[in-house]
Amino acid sequence: MMIMTRYALLLLLAFASLQLLCFAADDDVVFYDSFEESFDGRWIVSDKDDYKGVWKHSKSEGHDDYGLLVSEMAKKYAIVKELDEAVNLKDGTTVLQFETRLQGGLECGGAYLKYLRPQDAGWKPKEFDNESPYSIMFGPDKCGATNKLHFILKHKNPKSGEYIEHHLKYPPSVPSDKLTHVYTAILKPDNEVSILIDGEEKKKASFLSAEDFEPPLIPSKTIPDPDDKKPEDWDERAKIPDPDAVKPEDWDEDAPMEIEDEEAVKPESWLDDEPEEIDDPEATKPEDWDDEEDGEWEAPKIENPQCEIAPGCGEWKRPMKRNPAYKGKWSPPLIDNPSYKGIWKPQEIPNPNYFELEKPDFDPIAAIGIEIWTMQDGILFDNILIAKNDKVAESYRETTWKPKFEVEKEKQKAEDEAADSARLAGFQRKVFDVLYKVADIPFLSKYKHQILDLIEHAETQPNLTIGVLVSIVPRVEKKPEVAKTSNGEGSSGEKAEEAEKEEAAAAPRRRRRDN
């Protein structure tokens, strides 16, 4: 009885703990959309004329899981979801996470999200476009040499009131396959941000470090004085022509760079009377050629074959050679400039927009928007999450992303292996076709049955293809035994001569390799 009571108590405590964890997890989830239900009525598509791309509620290829699909190529897309309550990024940890699958690849376009400021910043859902003010932009972007996972913070300068885009330096690149990937940005209370791809940290940065963001959030204390002007007598030339230098008397500026080689002699077999090109003797006038409309027909020219076997054709001219007297235009040598002052720079003055910052002054997030231009279709967004706990985001990755990814990875692996096998089979078929042709070569007739046996054996075991190629060569090139005379006699010279003749007739000539 006591054992049962203790067991029941343990179960009760475990259940209570699980409930507390679940409630805590629910409290930490600020926003989540799995797109199992249609986005109609929940997300708002922009009415702006530029955004003609059609969004669709569609299944991910090979899954029963739904997502938000970019359905057309070479279009602009804009859609937005208002949050029930704005998210304060200044308190504690905030996690931004979503999945994308580039089902058609991504040659040129974006697949990023914009986390928008409240509408009092000057935007409306139906008019959502690239000018709508955001706090953070995060996600893949690829086109040409650009391949990066964007993280951009728009931060207000408290002195100037201007919002500046601060780009994460050296962001990670985007996976190039067509599998589902999950992207995570963890904004931490210690001013750090961690960027994860598929749960693996790819980049860690500090919002307040000039090494991590461009331009830095905290401006420099000084700036170049915009009113400072370079003095007129400021000399920036490190070297100057030597004013005392004089051109040597024997310096001939008019001497040509090249002259005729007077020692050259025309080759004896030079064909003076042969033109370098002749009419193509095999060319014929087309039947539909009209002399009145097309003019007199002339055969196309080809290189004169006589010139290929001779040193040259036509009028012989002496070749040119470098003129030993050539010096070119004279210029005085350079010397150190005694008046050199260095490269002028304006003086530094205090930066009127400088401010110190202990923490970024994040604007709250009031909506999530997708505003992209892409040349590819098939981009699928799914499982968009905003949470206040990175463990919650990890649990979502494990339950929503990872099972799909493992299935897709195994399928991709099988397809790659099948493609490799098909390529190998195609190569082997070509090898066998060549070997069958080799077997039919007349001077290999005495080895034909041996070659065919090897080929047929290899076709039943394709992995032996290379072995067959190796084994055929020595069989073909093996020297035949010297035939004995009818009486078993013969001089050594006669036998050697007979062997050489038989070898020359039987063994194939190796092909010369053209480089």
UniProtKB/TrEMBL annotation:
Residues 250-263, 270-281, 288-297 have a biased composition (Acidic residues). It comes from the Eukaryota. Keywords: Calcium, Chaperone, Disulfide bond, Endoplasmic reticulum, Glycoprotein, Lectin, Membrane, Metal-binding, Repeat, Signal, Transmembrane, Transmembrane helix. InterPro entries: Calret/calnex, Calret/calnex_CS, Calreticulin/calnexin_P_dom_sf, ConA-like_dom_sf. Residues 1-24 form the signal peptide. It is a single-pass type I membrane protein. Disulfide bonds join 108-143. It is found in: Endoplasmic reticulum membrane. The keyword Nucleotidyltransferase does not apply. GO terms for molecular function: calcium ion binding; carbohydrate binding; unfolded protein binding. GO terms for cellular component: endoplasmic reticulum membrane. Residues 207-300, 480-515 are annotated as: Disordered. Belongs to the calreticulin family. This is Calnexin. It comes from Gossypium raimondii (Peruvian cotton).
